[in-house]
Amino acid sequence: MSSNGFIKASYNLTRFAITVNELTLGLKEKLPPTDSRLRPDQRCLENGEYEMANAEKLRLEQRQRQARKMQESGWKPQWFVKDKGSETYRYIGGYWEAREDSRFSWLTSNCTTRVSPKSSNQN
């Protein structure tokens, strides 16, 4: 660590900034697989593995493009419904209960439930 409190190999982030993403004991089991603290590119970057971080970032971006295509063909968020006549989504419950029970194993990589466009539920 340098004299100004910044860790040199970590993009001049303070020790606090680096620990914000720390996975504490028991936390990982309660997080959905989409939590940013679990991003492999971020972990590689924090560990100074810059080439691996870049490769992971490119892989994740490709997955995001695939998820966007799937959304365009019809999708329904798990814990939200779209309000009629609005672009606003409303929380309908269930996330905190699933988190408490560690029931995230069924989630897909983009955290949506696939439905046909005609059957999407819009309130």
Automatic annotation (TrEMBL):
Annotated keywords? Coiled coil, Lipid transport, Lipid-binding, Transport
The highest taxon in the source lineage is Eukaryota
Any one GO CC term of this protein is:
membrane
Q: Which InterPro entries does the entry link to?
A: OSBP_sf, Oxysterol-bd
Q: Which GO terms describe its biological process?
A: lipid transport
Q: Which Pfam families match?
A: Oxysterol_BP (PF01237)
In alphabetical order, the GO MF annotations are:
sterol binding
Name of the protein = Uncharacterized protein
Summarize the protein's role: May be involved in the transport of sterols.
Species name: Zingiber officinale
Gene3D superfamilies membership: 3.30.70.3490
Instruction: State the family named in the UniProt similarity comment for this chain.
Output: Belongs to the OSBP family.
